[in-house]
Amino acid sequence: MLMKNAKSFFWESEEEEAAVGPYLVEAKHLNILVRVPKQFSDVKNYADSLMAGDTVMVSYEELDKEMRTRIFDYLNGVSYIIGAQVEKITSDIMIYAPANATIDKEEVKKNKSWL
User: Whole-model pTM above 0.85?
Assistant: First the structure.
């Protein structure tokens, strides 16, 4: 997909942002890393990336409850220390954004219609 077509995939016009959140706002340069940890040793690299200024989206779906809690606590501790923002995307996915990025999470309107 070409970059100009990719932009129209996410936004109708160049000035208009996505209507439904969460979405990132006010980031000059931002890398977003999507990760699915298998073991606890994987998250040290995620924390290093977050501290380097990257946004990290972590899927917890393949972890048991004990490992999920351990990784969640570790990444939340790192986020607290560096002032990163943490948002829940779904019940299994969290996004960790550094201080130079802002996440604006809009409420999805509950509607019986798809339109």
Answer: no
One-letter amino acid of 110: K
Distance CA 76, CA 107 (A): 23
Contact call for residues 61 and 36 (beta carbons, < 8 A): yes
Query: Tokens 């130079």 label which residue?
Result: 100
Return the sign of the alpha-carbon dihedral for residues 82, 94, 50, 71: positive
DSSP H helices, the chain, are: 3-10, 43-51, 65-82
Helix or strand or coil: residue 41? helix
Give the Cα separation of 110 and 50 in Å (integer).
33
The tally of CA atoms less than 13 A away on the side-chain side of residue 56 is: 26
CA-atom Rg of the chain in angstroms = 16
Q: What is the mean pLDDT of residues 37-57?
A: 92
